[in-house]
Amino acid sequence: MVGAIHGNEPVTRPLAEAISATPLPDHVSITILPTANPDGWARNQRRNAHGVDLNRNFPWRWSPSDGGPGPASAPETQAMMRTARQGNFDLALWIHQPLGYVAPIPGCPPHLADAWLSEVGDRRRLGIDQHGGGETWCARIAGVPSMLIEVATWTANPGLIEQHRRGFAACLAALR
Ligand SMILES: [Zn+2]
Question: Separation of 60 CA from ligand 1 center, angstroms?
């Protein structure tokens, strides 16, 4: 699970932290990167300190228009790629805000999004194919089923965080 790949999305880190407190079955483990963009988080800005939008920097349909100086040029991107490739993961979750949807990236079993949506009032979004996007690279190149969660808020709200934490728990149950 990746939080704060965009440093100006303040709900993503507390949500990742809330999810980390969810009791897990014995056979399940979760790897959490609560602040994938620590420079941006410190400055409350979308991009990292070098001005790179990390979620346009992945080597999937990379574009020089907004992807940084080259595909996977940022050390943060490289760290996320290494983690995705080494983890033998069943599912990758990418937390954003504030658009209010749950998006199974093509290849992700749709019932996992259904489970998450059973606890939150957001819409489902299908067919995301984001150039340079971590979630799309993860699904298409790393072969890890991937889901993007867009929390429907700009400001942290304990009730909303708890809804999404329950959404995670429902998704986890559906994954078994
Ligand atoms: Zn974002």
Answer: 17
Going from the Cα of 25 to the center of ligand 1, the distance in angstroms, rounded, reads 30
Distance 94 CA to ligand 1 centre (A): 9
Q: What own/partner pairs with CB < 8 Å and gap ≥ 24 does 53-56 have?
A: 53/6, 53/132, 54/5, 54/6, 54/80, 54/134, 55/5, 55/6, 55/94, 55/96, 55/130, 55/132, 55/133, 55/134, 55/135, 56/130, 56/131, 56/132, 56/133
Confidence of residue 49 (pLDDT cuts 50, 70, 90): very high
CATH no. for residue 100?
3.40.630.10
Q: Range of 102's domain?
A: 12-175
| 4 within domain boundaries | no
CA 88 / ligand 1 centre spacing (Å): 25
Per-residue pLDDT tens digits for 120-136: 989 999 999 999 999 99
